[in-house]
């Protein structure tokens, strides 16, 4: 999977969520930029995330992000890798220690464009985050990486209370509750 297949997946991506539909064209346009998969593109670049859920679809694995100090899904920078599915799986393994990770669907689960605040000499910029739905075993031990302050399986009923209002996480939660796909 490279930028051409990413472009095809984005062209076929459909969402009932207006906020996603509004920036789908920006994601497509970005696939034509040679720097789109590198942090050096300071105005914004691709990242990839894993929305990790248990098989029964009752919990999601979230990390208390070390730099942002917010509960988020696991993921990170592409760092030149055009295979964002591979990036999402690698980040999920590295940030959780889980070995039971299983891709639910090769299609894109969610996309989100969000601002990252300035940090040191890195200016404020956008992350164009491509997300994939991944399952894991709820009872497998977790290993907190150096990028996290904490890591926890959060019951779907508690996610909104724990994270505060984060529309992209709420959207992924709603999609998971609606879809009940491939259980």
TrEMBL record:
Top-level taxon of origin: Bacteria
Chain ranges of the Nudix hydrolase domain: 43-176
InterPro entries assigned to the protein according to its UniProt record, in alphabetical order: NUDIX_hydrolase-like_dom_sf (IPR015797), NUDIX_hydrolase_dom (IPR000086)
Entry protein name: Nudix hydrolase domain-containing protein
Originating organism: Rhodonellum ikkaensis
């Amino acid at each position: 999977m490279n930028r051409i297949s990413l472009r095809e997946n984005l062209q076929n991506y459909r969402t009932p969520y207006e906020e996603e539909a509004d920036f789908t064209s920006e994601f497509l346009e970005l696939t034509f930029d040679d720097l789109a998969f590198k942090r050096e593109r300071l105005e914004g670049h691709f990242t990839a995330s894993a929305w990790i859920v248990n098989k029964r679809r009752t919990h999601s694995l979230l990390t208390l992000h070390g730099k942002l100090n917010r509960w988020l899904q696991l993921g990170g920078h592409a760092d030149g890798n055009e295979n964002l599915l591979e990036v999402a799986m690698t980040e999920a393994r590295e940030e959780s220690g889980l070995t039971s990770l299983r891709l639910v669907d090769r299609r894109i689960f969610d996309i989100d464009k969000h601002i990252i605040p300035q940090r040191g000499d890195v200016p404020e910029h956008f992350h164009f985050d491509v997300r994939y739905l991944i399952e894991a075993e709820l009872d497998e031990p977790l290993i907190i990486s150096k990028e996290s302050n904490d890591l926890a399986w959060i019951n779907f009923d508690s996610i909104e209370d724990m994270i505060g209002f984060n529309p992209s996480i709420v959207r992924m939660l709603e999609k998971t509750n609606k879809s009940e796909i491939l259980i």
